[in-house]
Specification:
The chain is α/β, with parallel strands linked by helices and about 425 residues long. Strands 3-2-1-4-5-6-7-8 form an eight-stranded mixed beta sheet, with helices on both faces. Strand 1, helix 1 and strand 2 form a beta-alpha-beta unit. The longest helix has about 30 residues. The protein is elongated, with a radius of gyration of 28 Å. Bound molecules: nicotinamide-adenine-dinucleotide (NAD). Nicotinamide-adenine-dinucleotide (NAD) binds next to helix 1 and helix 5.
Amino acid sequence: MKIAVIGLGYVGAVTGSCLVDLGHEVTLIEKNNEKVSLFNACISPIAEPGLTDLIRKGIATGKLRATSDASQELLLCDLVIVSVGTPTNQATGRADLTSIQNVTFEIAEALKIRSAKLRIAIASTVPPGTTEGIVREYFEKQGIDSNKFSLAFIPEFLREGSAISDFMSPTRFIIGSRTQNEAREFMAMRPELLDITHFTKTETSEMLKTVENSWHATKITFANEIGRISRSVGVDENEVMDLLIADNKQNISSTYMKPGFAFGGSCLPKDLRSLVYLGHSHGVQIPLLAGIAQSNSHQIDVAVGRIVELKLRRVGVLGLAFKANTDDIRESPSVTLIESLLGKGFDVQIHDFEVDGSKLFGVNLDIWNQHSHLAQNMVSNVQDLLEESEIIVLAQHNFRYQEILKNIPSDKVILDLTGLTRSSPK
Ligand SMILES: NC(=O)c1ccc[n+]([C@@H]2O[C@H](COP(=O)([O-])OP(=O)(O)OC[C@H]3O[C@@H](n4cnc5c(N)ncnc54)[C@H](O)[C@@H]3O)[C@@H](O)[C@H]2O)c1
């Protein structure tokens, strides 16, 4: 393909040089003339292992060059990749999309003149809604025929320092677009990645990019907070983390990585509190760990808010124990949710396959006795609850409820707090 890459920065320089290595012809468009001259003289504008060699090789074949004149290139290319900067405000986090807007204006001018269809891939990191809301909307406002272009967001996951191997051998290739057909038009850019390509919605791919980097930041900060607490009590921080990551069933895995209801039970809340206390009692600042309980409790408040918004009175809650296949109601988010609903005057019915007040012992029995409304509102026949409730709240990720929910009359509102209705049994 004949490709134009706009923005000769860390992403553009690597993208352009690698695409030439993969057999494409690339012109890098950059408004900074000094960068353009350096690049055309085979000098990399950025420090990146292996890049100078790729630039030299590409320029020698005549298939790689840089220019500051966008107008001509945008008339000739088959595909344009946008990799301009999108810095965020240090105080508010708001992304500055001025460069994306400017590039959109330039591409629009070319589209008005071109007869051949142009594929436009945004690779700059942008907030969800930008590709459709800024780029496509501008083209539409300019009266540009939608058959003259296809538009996608293709997130770039390369890391500086290992950018060439990250670009050349990604673990997956994501193309976000309005339709799958439109997304497929971009496969010509990386046909060798078809088996690892995911086609998704534009906004999902835009969101994914910032979510991924935030996840990396979270992992680093978690490890650093564990390091600070460990050091303060004389425990080897590296050994703790090495043993943590040695488990790939629960620890380094997809377990617990789905949005759902709040966590609870006899272990997670208790041990989190204990770790936070340990850190604080040694004067260690651990804002990430200390904020988890607050975020978890907010998850319950949000659920209550969603039920209140529905403006219906009779609520059936499926699941009282903190998870399926146990009768443990210690720190169950369901108990807190039900208390809050009763406090707001809702009629609540509760069902749980395992919880039976007459069979509870110890702390669980104490909780049961302290919350007499649990016993008063518990039903043993789930069908009664389904018939009498206007809202069915799924508060426990229990596959036995999946079957039951399949036969619910359509006038009932189902509020799935757990993500169960989107999961399949393992
Ligand atoms: N740096 C990374 O490792 C990395 C990785 C993945 C994604 N990203 C994202 O990719 C985007 C680019 O990042 P970067 O680090 O390469 O940025 P950068 O600042 O190094 O490069 C951007 C380049 O675009 C040029 N530019 C801006 N407007 C232009 C225009 N209208 N015409 C021509 N050139 C123009 C600038 O002069 C600059 O040279 C950002 O959104 C960033 O968040 C960066």
